[in-house]
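Run log // design_07
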């Protein structure tokens, strides 16, 4: 089962058949993410084939990992399989 961990906490876990792999990133369904660790962020970036990425920061045991989580809320058709999913970076350990 794929998991995402940071600062000693499991942030997300989901069965293989619920995650999506795009550009070597594991996208977890938002329902598999422990919402108490997510903090909204105003950061946005643009991908020419996926669309606009929106970010969250992680807050775990008083430590913040700014913009370590991203999602495409309305991905372009080419990336529609990641709608409702999030991916991680910035030191978040993802194991498959």
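design_07 sequence
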């Amino acid at each position: 089962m794929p998991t995402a961990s940071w600062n000693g906490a499991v942030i997300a876990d989901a069965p293989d058949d619920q995650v999506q792999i795009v550009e070597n990133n594991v996208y977890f369904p938002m329902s598999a993410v422990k919402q108490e660790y997510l903090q909204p962020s105003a950061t946005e970036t643009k991908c020419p084939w996926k669309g606009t990425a929106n970010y969250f920061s992680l807050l775990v045991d008083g430590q913040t990992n700014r913009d370590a989580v991203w999602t495409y809320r309305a991905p372009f058709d080419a990336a529609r399989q990641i709608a409702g999913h999030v991916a991680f970076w910035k030191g978040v350990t993802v194991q498959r």
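The chain has no helices and nine strands.
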